[in-house]
Structures are given as structure tokens and as C-alpha cells.
Amino acid sequence: MLSKKTKIKILVAAALGCVGIAAIVMFLIFEKPSDDIAQLNSKYGLVTAESLGNSIPPRVANLFKPDSLSANLLDSTKPKKELIVKLAAQNSDSQTALQNVFILSLKTKDNIENIAREYANSPEVEYAEPNFDLEKDLSPTAATETKAVSIITDSDKKPVIVAVLDSGVDINHPDLEKRVVAGWNFLDDSADVADANGHGTHVAGIILRNSTAAEILPLKISDGSNGTLRELVEAIKYAADNNAQVINLSLGLKQESQVLREALDYAREKNVFVVAAAGNYRSSAKYFPAAYADVFAVSALANDGSKLFLSNFGEWVDFSVIAQDVEAPAPDEKYAIRTGTSQAAPVVTAKIADFLSTVDSANFDTVNEFLIKNSKQISGKYLLGRQILAVDK
């Protein structure tokens, strides 16, 4: 038989043991990275982790500690790949848009889509996907010698900020300079939105040639060869936070994206209207973000009103615009002729801007009703939605 004193010692020891075990468990939960995340970081050579929000909370940062041995920066045989990861809600100190979304830079030869699936299987992670490259513009371009066109602002209309997420804008072009507000370059985090590629300047010029109310907010997310999903979603959030009422996206992805969907939801909550090109792949396959239901998807027509040879089409397309051989500004006070859905989308953007300037408030349904009233149904074997008249060349 154990004495009473001995029994008390045993009970105290057991209690202290339970407290110790609880403390260890709490440490593992709140301080130590989960084993699966740590193993994946090591397996795929985590180099850095950046937040798409303002900062990384300490306990979240602890999940993404780089493994310096696996992520040897001197190992030139391992290319750098980027992964977008959204942590589950309990691991984020904030649920503000994109606050719990992170960009992981990895040094690995492994397939990034397979890596994304492995991270997504972790209970710590809500979703994971590659930081996809934005699709490049495939439309043909020709130089012209046209002189500056007088871009008119209607003083009776209230100005409408239109964010052009693209290759930048030549803010000093004589057609544009009086109707451009200060923008941002998401490639190098600067205010320099110079456009060497010309695509963004062309798009902005089309908007201003078709709207008397629009003012362009240039957001540079690509230089024509570089530009990823990361810059796109950051720019969407920036536009929504900086008084843009319409976003023009003459670009896209062949893949669906959860982080893009999240950014668009944020814009929708701020009552920002998004117009997107349907893509130039001669395909009915969905192109994103145009194919999302709350984005106005725009295909392109040839000058005779038929489907433009390179334009995408399908039941997900809302509107179409004649967009063959469209002349508009190019960098260095020049002009260019371009063809494609990139030139069709900004016409719809311009129409929306002018409509918003005449009303006190609007929602997606009222904007859609306005566009339907100012368009006609397109018949034929291709599904191209309704035709909006027409681009000013």
C-alpha cells in the first residue's frame, strides 16, 4: 500500500506532466511550423515568402521559414518557381482581401502544378496554385503616321476613373496627357508606368476615343514579356482601393485561378465593374477572367460584322465589338493599328464609363441593362453575345 504522502506526490507529478504535455502541444500549434509545410518547404527549396497584404504576422511567417540548404541560391541547375498559397482562416490575423495570401519563391526542377497540389493538401492551406504567367497579346501591329486626335472631355459629365491594367501607358502622348491620373508600376514598385510595348497605350487611347468621361489610371502589370498573376491581383485590389469605377483587362489566362477570383470578388464588393477581353485563340474554351459571370466578356468582330478570325467565342461571351485594324495612340507620340479582342474590350469599357458619369449609382444589373439596350443580338454559328456599336478608328 502506498502512503498518503506518496499518493499526493504521484498525483502532483501526473498533473505537472499533463501541464507539460499541454505546453508542448501549444508550442507546436502556435510556434512551430506544421510538419507537412516544413517538409514541403525543405523538399522544394523555399527561398522567400511574401505577403500580398501589408505584412506577414509572426506566427504565419513561422510557417514559411526558408530552408537554406535546400534553397541554395548558388545552385544554377534549379530554376526559381513561384507558388501562390492562401492559408486557412485560423492561420491569418486578418481576413482583409489578399491578407492571408502569400507568394512562395522556390528553387526546384519539379512541376509547379504538382507542387501546388501538395501544398493544397495541407490542413494549413485553403488553396495553392502556380503564379501563372499572363497571356501575351497575339494581335498583329502596324505603324501609322496619323496626327494627334483631339480627345474631348465633356465638362457636363462627372469624370470616371478607368483602371487600365496592362503594359503601362505613355502618359505624355498628346492624345492622352490631359486625361491620365498618376498610376503605379507593379513590376518594380514605382510610379514609372512608361510603356515600351505599346499595348497599354493603345488600349487607353481606344477608351478615350470612345468616352468623354473616362480618366485613365495606368497600372503596369506587364512589359510585354514579363507579368504574372501576382501583379494582376495586386493591381485589381489597388484599383478598387483607389477610386477606380471600371477596370479594363485586355489580357487573361487559359486557367481558372482562385486568387484571381478572390481579387475580383473584392472589386465587386467595392462596386467596381470589370471588362475583359475574350482572348485571341479562335477557341470556345473559357478564357479568364472574361469567362467569370460578373465580368463583361468581349469578343471581336471583323469589319464586315463576322467573327474576327482570331477571336475566341462561346456562350460565356457577353458582347462583341468591331475591332479589326483599329488605329490608336502608341508610345513616343506615334500611332499604331492593332487587331483583336484587346481592342474590342476598351470600347465596352468606354461605354460603361460614359454611362456611370450620367447616373448617381449603378450596379452590375443596371450596367448590363444599359449595354443590352445599346447593342443587338448576333446570329450565326459562333456565340458572340451582342454587338455594341462600334470602335472609333
Question: Topology of this protein?
Answer:
Blueprint: H1 4-30, H2 35-43, E1 46-51, H3 58-61, E2 80-87, E3 101-107, H4 112-120, E4 125-130, E5 141-144, E6 160-166, E7 184-185, H5 199-209, E8 214-220, H6 229-241, E9 246-249, H7 258-269, E10 273-277, E11 296-301, E12 319-322, E13 326-330, E14 334-338, H8 341-356, H9 364-373, E15 375-377, E16 386-388
Helix pairs in contact: 5-8, 6-7
Tell me what the structure shows.
- The chain is built from nine helices and 16 strands.
- Helices cover 28% and strands 21% of the residues.
- By secondary structure, the chain is α/β, with parallel strands linked by helices.
- A nine-stranded mixed sheet has the order 7-8-6-9-10-11-12-16-15, sandwiched between helices. A four-stranded antiparallel sheet has the order 1-3-2-4, with helices on one face. A three-stranded antiparallel sheet has the order 5-14-13.
- The chain has helices at residues 4-30, 35-43, 58-61, 112-120, 199-209, 229-241, 258-269, 341-356, 364-373; strands at residues 46-51, 80-87, 101-107, 125-130, 141-144, 160-166, 184-185, 214-220, 246-249, 273-277, 296-301, 319-322, 326-330, 334-338, 375-377, 386-388.
- The longest helix is centred in the first third of the chain and has 27 residues, at 4-30.
Radius of gyration, rounded?
26 Å
The coarse overall form would be globular
Strand content: 15-25%
Let me know the average pLDDT: 87
Largest sheet: 9 strands, mixed
- Helical run tally: 9
Going across the major beta sheet, what is the strand order? 7-8-6-9-10-11-12-16-15
Alpha-carbon distance between the termini? 102 Å
Helix content: 25-40%
Could you give the count of β-strands?
16
Question: Low-confidence runs (pLDDT<50, min 5 residues)?
Answer: 22-33
Structural class designation: alpha/beta
**Element-level helix/strand string:** HHEHEEHEEEEHEHEHEEEEEHHEE
